[in-house]
Amino acid sequence: MSETHTLYAITHSLYSGRARSYLIKNQIPFRELSTGHESFKADVLPRGKLPTIPTLVTPESEVIRDGAAIIEHFEAANGRPCRPAGPRQQIVSALFDVIGADGLLRPAMHYRWNFPEDNLAFVRYHFLHSQRDVPEREDKTEHMMGRMRHAAMIFGVTEQTQALVEALYLEYLDALNAHFEQYPYLLGWRPCIGDFGLLAPMYAHLGRDPHPARLMQQRATRVYRWVERMNRADQDVPEYFNAGTDFLPDDEVSDTLAAVLRVLAEDFVPETLASAECINAWLADTQPEAGAPAVGRLAQAIGTAEFTLRGETIKSLAQPYRFYLLQRVQDTYAALAPEEKASVDELLDACGMSAVLTTTLDRRIGRGENLEVWEA
Ligand SMILES: N[C@@H](CCC(=O)N[C@@H](CS)C(=O)NCC(=O)O)C(=O)O
C-alpha cells in the first residue's frame, strides 16, 4: 500500500494552507489534488460530506474533512509534536489557531477582493485551473468568483470601515514583524498548532495575492519569511544566529508575542462577544436537534455580529467554527491546576484577551462523520 496521503486542496485556498504546512513541517508524504479531479466527487465527497478543502485521504482510504481535524488526526497518532507542554504556551497556541482560522478573515478577504487591478487575473487563474478544461469552466469560474467577491463585505469591510480594517491589519503586521525579529516561530524555535492556524490567512491571501504580498514583502519582511518558512520542511532559520530547536523554555510567551495578541484583541474580542450573542439567540430560536450540523457556510448564514470599534460599526458573519475551536482553548484552561490558571489569567489579562476564556455558546459543538455538530 502506498504511504502517500492525498490532500484535496488548492494553492489559493485559505484553509488549505494550514493543513498543507502541517504535512510539510511534519514530513508526512502527500500529493495535492484539486477538487476538479473525478475522484473527489465520486469517492471523497460522499464521505467528506461537504465540498470543502482541505480534505485528506489517508493511505488506508480514510477521508478526513476540515483542517483542524486533519491536524488532530496526526497529532493524536504521533504524540502531539506541535503542542507545547506548558499551560501558557498551550493556551496561546490554541488561541492563535482560532484567530488564524476565523479572526483574520476581514483583512484576508479585503486585500484579496478589493484590489482587483492587482489581484484579479492572478486569482482568476487559480479558480479556473482548479477545474478540468471543460467548456463550462469559464462560466463556473465567473460564478465561483462572483460568490466570493462579496466575502469582504460579508465579514464587515465597507467603504465606511475600510480605513479601520487596514489600520488594524498594519498594526498587527508591524507587531508580528517585531516578534519575528526575535524568533522564527510564534513560540520560539519550532512551529506550534497556532503557527499553522495563523498561516491560513497569511499564506494564500495576505502572503501570496499580488497586492497584499507586496505590502508584506515591503513592510514586514520577517513576516514574509515566516510564511516561506512555514512551507518548508526544514527549520529554515539562516538569519537567526544561535538558533535553538524547541519551544521557548519555562513556558515563556515572549513580550513580542504578547504585543501581537494585544493588537489582535482589539477586534477579536468584541467580535467574539457579538458573535456569541448572535449565535446564542439563533440557538434559542431554532433549537437544533443534537447531531444537527453546526457548519455555517456562507450559503447558510446564521446571522450577523455587530460591534463598534474606534467609532465604526462593523457587521460581520457570525460563525460557529470560531467557537468550535475556542472550546479547545477553554477545555485546556478548565483542566489546569489553580496556579496554572492564575498564570494564564495574568497573561491574557495583560493582552486584553481574558474574555476568550468565558465567552461560550449555549450548546457545545462536537464532531460526527466529518461534520461539526450541535451537542445535546
Ligand atoms: N472548517 C473548514 C473550512 C474549509 C473551507 O471553508 N474551505 C473553503 C476554501 S478555503 C472551501 O472549500 N469553500 C468551498 C465551499 O464552502 O463550498 C476547514 O478549516 O478546513
Summed up, what is this model?
This protein is α+β, with helices and mostly antiparallel strands and 376 residues long.
Layout of strands and helices, then pairs:
Elements: E1 5-8, H1 14-25, E2 30-33, H2 38-48, E3 55-57, E4 63-65, H3 67-77, H4 87-103, H5 105-113, H6 116-129, H7 137-149, H8 151-154, H9 162-182, H10 193-203, H11 210-219, H12 221-229, H13 255-286, E5 304-309, E6 312-317, H14 320-334, H15 338-351, E7 365-368, E8 371-374
Parallel strand pairs: 1-2
Antiparallel strand pairs: 1-3, 3-4, 5-6, 7-8
Helix pairs in contact: 1-3, 1-10, 4-10, 4-14, 9-12, 9-13, 11-12
The structure holds glutathione.
Task: Describe what this molecule looks like in 3D.
The chain has helices at 14-25, 38-48, 67-77, 87-103, 105-113, 116-129, 137-149, 151-154, 162-182, 193-203, 210-219, 221-229, 255-286, 320-334, 338-351; strands at 5-8, 30-33, 55-57, 63-65, 304-309, 312-317, 365-368, 371-374. By secondary structure, it is of the alpha+beta class. 54% of the residues lie in helices and 9% in strands. It has a domain at 5-77: Glutaredoxin. Helix 4 (87-103) packs antiparallel against helix 14 (320-334) and helix 11 (210-219) crosses helix 12. Strand 3 and strand 4 form a beta hairpin. It has a four-stranded mixed sheet with strand order 2-1-3-4, sandwiched between helices. A two-stranded antiparallel ribbon has the order 5-6. It binds glutathione. Glutathione binds at residues 13-15, 51-54, 66-68, 101, 297, 321.
